[in-house]
Amino acid sequence: MNISNSTELICFAILSIVVILGSLGVILLRNIVYSAFLLGGVFMAVAGLYLLLNASFVAAAQVLVYVGAVNVLILFAIMLVNKKEELKPIKSLQIRRILSAIVCSGLLLLLIRVDLTTPWDIPGPAAIGEQATERIGEHLFTDYLLPFELASVLLLMAMIGAIVLARRDVLVSDVGTGDSVDQSLIEKSNTPLLIDESSS
Amino acid sequence: MLNNSSVPVPLEAYLVLASLLFCIGVWGLINSRNAVRVLMSIELMLNAVNINLMAFSSYIDGALIRGQVFSVFVITVAAAEAAVGLAILLSLYRNRVTIDMENFNLLRW
User: Other C-beta atoms within 10 Å of A11: how many?
Assistant: First the structure.
């Protein structure tokens, strides 16, 4: 085993450990802010895995979109909804956790079995390596042109939908209590961001 | 580098890593009580799927890297999903003044 192979193996091992431990921390840590930052670390490690797989463009897109946009968006959401609240203890929480862990590990065993027993068709054609970015561009503007345009429409829809949903005063009354919701309030702009807790 | 004898990291290693990440995401999705953490778990699952696509693209479809194109689309859809999901969460928080998932049971019979 020469030096490049062993370097790749060591990089893969380190990145997988970071991914697994980071994702466990994301779902298990009690403080949600730590979870969000660990999620950024997991995204960066996944970008490193993409670099190991000769995909520099997708690695850059992963860093830009996930770490730069999605993670920052999650941090903003945590900041906006950050209220210390005492979660009501629910009974049979522990049983629920154990049951779902059993189900998830069953799914994991199933996936690993499929993975290890399927005769994969390798080695495939030789990887094109550094020309991957050009090839992605060719794909996007020839045979994947329709999904590409649909993705732009989807992004526009998501942007408008997020703006409409996160406006200050689309709904001012609790949907649970059955109070009427005045739809003309959609255009009003100077009500407080959070509803008044003393009146509710 | 992709001769079968000299591949340092086999394809199966990437797939096992992706399935581990996916199952961790599923567990977090089921068991989180904070709604923001549910969205984080969904992002973890999407990343697991992306690792799968990239591994197949590099090992099996090395000449036409269609898996990488699909990964770009998945990243796009994930960004849109995160934006809309967090906006829904924000308006939900304004109505209910809580983000505990146990309180969002209006449609449960």
Answer: 16
